[in-house]
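TOPIC: backbone geometry
CONTENTS: sequence, structure tokens:
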Amino acid sequence: MRILVTGAAGFIGSTLSLRLLARGDEVLGVDNLNDYYDVTLKQARLDRLTPHPGFTFAKVSIEDRPALEKAFHGFRPQRVVNLAAQAGVRYSIENPYAYVESNLVGFINILEACRRGKVEHLVYASSSSVYGANRKLPFSVQDPVDHPVSLYAATKKANELMAHTYSHLYNLPTTGLRFFTVYGPWGRPDMALFLFTRKILAGEPIDVFNHGHHTRDFTYIDDIVEGVIRALDHVPGPDPAYDPLHPNSATSSAPYRVYNIGNSHPVQLSHYIEVLEDCLGRKAEKNLLPLQPGDVPDTSAEVTELMEDTGYRPDTRVEEGVRRFVEWYRRYYGV
């Protein structure tokens, strides 16, 4: 198939693109290579893709409507995976406008381009952060998500609402994936595992929020990509069991689905750090701090729907995933 992947120089986007190319798909990667974090890392991810004859790249911001429309028109994708977004919960407190421009304006541009281009299926990144102030665990896609605690989360919830509108009005099949704390080789430098590894190896103290007591459903990158591909290949139709008198927020009478995509085995942050210390052969000096504004104490994914619909089965334990990350980090940075 011809598949357009936005955020193709990103952590998930580059790994997904490699997998799609390996199975014979033609991929157009779209990314603006912004400097939210190290651009050389983004370029290195792209350099893994460019030798493939089935890969082409367009340096485009999704909020740039004319440039995005030109990319769609030239490539004519059959399916689209939108992973481009301004990421980061904490940064959304510092720079809210970046999230409106990329995650809202950019997403309506994606939806319009898909509608006009008669795309067969749009898969887009949502986030576990939409669960916000919810405390019932594990988080289910059937739970209400009306109390976000960061603007980042609010924009991701808005993406789900916008997608449903286009599924309803234009019969555009859309699938939203609520990612749970993705980690692994080629990861993002602003994420905990990357920060912790760099500082521990440099002999610097690490900031441990909520005194290390909160839990996260850490999900290894290969499990995430496997889930994205399974969702991409599973084009949703109207849910025949949908009852408007008792609505289910994860399905619809329109061709629309929302899934959690996580490991479904939450790990306490303090244990995550212990695993990393074992892999590095060094102990961390810890600054124990309270929970950050916009963060939530715990996340845990109920993935039954994705398993039943696509056969998704995450199987990477955190001990194995962290070990693979450390091996990549030492190799990539020559540490």
